[in-house]
C-alpha cells in the first residue's frame, strides 16, 4: 500500500428518494473524492429507511451500481448497519461489491488499530430507544418483519419514523448523545485508543484523558462523523494521520 492511499469514513447520509441533492452529492463523491482510495467505510444510515434487500428501486439500484464501480476499480468498500438501515443484508452488500461489517469492528488502518461502530449503542441514557433497539435487532423480530409484504413493511417503517420524530422532539438533546462512561468501557474492553462513529450528527474530534492507560497511552481519540444535510462530511485517514473534513453538497 502506497503512502498516499487514503481510507475514507462516512456515515448518516440518510439517502431518500425525496432528496435528490444528497444522492447526487454522494454519487459525485464516489466519482471524485473516493476514486483511488484504499478503502471506503460507510458506518451506518446510508439510507433513511431499509425494509429488506428485496425492495428494489431506482435509488438503491443507482447506489449499488456506483459502489460496485468503485469496488471494481480496486477500492475496498465496507458497509455497517445504522439505526435506520439495520436490515440491510448480505445480498445488497454483494450487489455493492461491499463487505458487511458487524459492529463493533476493529480494523488495521494504515498501521493503527481503529474501532468502528455506528454509535447508537453508546446512547444508553435514551432508555426508550435502547429498548426499541434491542427488540428490532433480535432475529425473531427481523424474521417476522421480513415475512410481511413490502407494502406492510413500508407502512410500519413510515409509522416508526413518525413516532421517532415525535418522541425525539420531546427529549433533551444530551440524552440522545453518547454516554461518556460507555465510550470508556468500550475502549478499555477492546483495548483500542481510536474510536470512529456516526449517529449523533455532532461531528467533532474528542481527545479523552484516560485514568487507566490503554496500550501504554494516557489519551484516546473519539472521532464523530457528520451527517450529510447542509454539507457533506468525510474522515480521511492516511499513514500521516487523519483529517475530518466537510464540503458543500451538489445542487
Could you please describe the fold and organization of this structure?
Helix 3 (90-95) links the parallel strand 3 (76-80) and strand 4. Helices cover 33% and strands 26% of the residues. The chain is of the alpha/beta class and 251 residues long. The model has no long low-confidence stretch (mean pLDDT 94). The radius of gyration is 18 Å and the shape is globular. The strands form 2 sheets. It has a 6-stranded mixed beta sheet. Strands 5-6-7-9-8 form a 5-stranded mixed beta sheet, with helices on one face.
Observed structural traits:
single chain, 251 residues, alpha/beta, Purple Acid Phosphatase, chain A, domain 2, five-stranded mixed beta sheet, 7 helices, 33% helix, globular
Count of DSSP strands: 11
Contiguous low-pLDDT stretches (5 residues minimum) are: none
Looking at the structure, what is the overall shape?
globular
* Rg over alpha carbons: 18 Å
Supply the CATH class. Answer: Alpha Beta
Instruction: Report how far apart the termini are.
Output: 35 Å
Quick one: biggest sheet? 6 strands, mixed
Q: Would you list the SSEs in sequence order as H and E?
A: EHEHEHEEEHHHHEEEEE
**What is the residue-mean pLDDT, rounded to a whole number?**
94
Structural class: alpha/beta
Question: What is the number of helical segments per DSSP (H or I, 4+ residues)?
Answer: 7
CATH superfamily: Metallo-dependent phosphatases
